[in-house]
Design brief:
By secondary structure, the chain is an all-alpha fold. Helix content is 75%, strand content 0%.
Length: 290
């Protein structure tokens, strides 16, 4: 449940910040007439994300077992790729997100209502689709049939909406660069578990070999049905009897990805840029004012 709460919080807060920045800019520039197209674009993006999630859930039920496993494994790996790209992108652009969105909004205002709708739709829609796909993959990985993963994701999104509103009202200030670094690092760990489970799905679909070749089996030590087994499963997608391929893929993804993600921003461009980035990251971010 915690991992899905983290997904909902992280992705929801990104979308909330985007909405907050767009609306605050229009209010500041006395362009309240443009708020309606923005809300239309946001509404369409949310509807698309919900429809996409429903299509994944109900569409996959009509498939054979092997087809379900192949689809689930493929989409889990795709979800991991999208989330990995997203956390790295946000790590580098969190400090400049506001100015980037302002530039796009200025161009859209000049082009008319359709461009405003498209701007809001694209800005929020990407987060919505990523959230739907990753939550679906995480729920499949949990595999306990309970509504807890969905409840966790919903609570995360609700928390993100509340935080976004507090940002907009100026009642909350937080260092966004640090926030996205910490949550991004935790999401990388969650993504590693989803990736390993996706590989297991592909093994059950007979797309990959080694299904019976176990790396270890500690089911007698860690009972998957116990409270701590459930906790490990919910947070890290832990499996007490993974295959050799699963463990190998988990390690090959987690170690280098986490090392690169936690490295100073701009480390490859010289020590001066690293120092400047670190100094800028230590300053508190200012929330947009209405």
């Amino acid at each position: 449940m915690f991992s899905n709460y983290l997904i909902g919080l992280r992705e929801g807060l990104e979308a909330s910040l985007v909405v907050c920045i767009l609306i605050a800019y229009l209010v500041k520039t006395d362009r309240r007439d443009a708020l309606k197209p923005i809300w239309i674009g946001i509404g369409v993006a949310v509807a698309l994300a919900l429809g996409f999630g429903c299509a994944l859930e109900f569409g996959s039920q009509e498939l054979t077992f092997e087809a379900q496993e192949a689809l689930g494994g493929s989409l889990s790996i795709l979800a991991v790729g999208l989330v990995t790209w997203m956390v790295f992108w946000m790590r580098r652009t969190a400090r400049h997100l506001k100015s980037e969105l302002h530039g796009k909004l200025d161009a859209a205002l000049q082009m008319g209502t359709g461009a405003l709708v498209a701007t809001a739709f694209l800005a929020v829609g990407r987060e919505g689709l990523e959230t739907a796909l990753f939550v679906w993959a995480s729920v499949r990985a949990a595999g306990d049939g309970s509504p807890r993963p969905l409840v966790g994701a919903a609570l995360g999104i609700v928390t993100a909406i509340v935080l976004g509103w507090l940002f907009y009202r100026g009642a909350l200030r937080i260092n966004l660069a640090r926030f996205f670094t910490w949550t991004g690092g935790m999401l990388v760990v969650v993504a590693a578990g989803v990736l390993a489970y996706g590989v297991h799905d592909l093994q059950e679909a007979r797309w990959l070999p080694g299904l019976s070749n176990r790396a270890f089996d500690i089911s007698d030590t860690i009972d998957p049905s116990s409270w701590y087994g459930t906790l490990l499963k919910g947070v890290f997608n832990f499996q007490p009897d993974p295959t050799v391929v699963q463990v190998t893929v988990w390690l090959l993804y987690l170690i280098p990805t986490l090392a690169l993600f936690l490295a100073p921003v701009g480390f490859a461009s010289g020590k001066g840029k690293v120092k400047a980035a670190d100094e800028q990251g230590s300053r508190p971010s200012k929330a947009p004012q209405a």
